[in-house]
Amino acid sequence: MSSSQPTAIVFGIANKRSIAWGVTQKLHAQGVKLTVAYQGERFERAIRKLLEGEGITDALLVTCDVTEEGAVDRVFDAHMEQWGRLDHVVHSIAFAKREELEGNFTDTSRDGFLLAQEISAFSLIPMARAAKRLMSDGGSIIAMTYLAAQRVVANYNVMGSAKASLEHVVRQLAFELGEQNIRVNAVSAGPLQTVSARGVAGFSGILKVYADKTPLKRNITLEEVANASWFLLSEQASGITGQCLFVDSGYSIMASSGDEI
Ligand code: 0WD
Description:
Elements: E1 7-11, H1 19-29, E2 33-38, H2 41-53, E3 60-63, H3 71-83, E4 88-91, H4 110-122, H5 124-134, E5 139-145, H6 157-177, E6 182-189, H7 203-213, H8 222-233, E7 244-247
Helix pairs in contact: 1-8, 3-5, 4-6, 5-6
């Protein structure tokens, strides 16, 4: 079957608070046909319930643990089987062991560092390789990053290194895929209460700092991140690639007051 509508593969829906879920709602509202790749069977029921609640009845669901060799390619092949075309890819996954998201960075373990890099940054490369093969008419890819890629955020530790990696991967892929008219960008969201975020020690304190110290004097919403994500995926951003767009109430323009966050 070949969809007459644009299609997307979304990685990283865990629940209704997931950034990937906000983006999925936006994509559906724009008439985009969906493949939802989720980490493991334990998520399937919750994801099916979310999709049904949103009136998304034709999404293709595929499990994908990006640490499994070949898992990403299986998602892309299943997508093409179902939809016959590929226009967008949303990378909204990250993982670090909880014990690596607190305490001293100097105590980071080798396997903890490598696992965070593998899931949160390396995984975008096989996705882009598959997209390069399948996006015959060009397309767009986004990934989710965080300010700690560029500045020190207490406790974010090993995930900061992973996000720094991810932001380079976005730029390098943008360079390499540009001639096929495939754009690659990152959205750098302010803090949102999600499963992953709650894994960072002192996260609630970060939310308060953003509410008090940002130009907008408030935290951002899932919908605001989804709106910016759809913008970067859409033709409205046809001249934008390799960029990192902050959706953070303006926090990233503030000189540090010295308060740790
Ligand atoms: O404040 C926040 N929530 C921010 C999140 C601020 C700025 C950026 N981000 C980023 C995260 O670093 C991540 O890259 O946004 C992305 C999405 O994170 P999220 O929506 O905040 O977190 P969550 O709802 O937990 O989704 C992350 C998902 C995992 O969910 P669980 O419930 O397992 O933590 O990433 C997926 C999983 O669904 N995931 C994997 N998928 C495939 N293979 C794997 C894996 N090995 N590990 C995690």
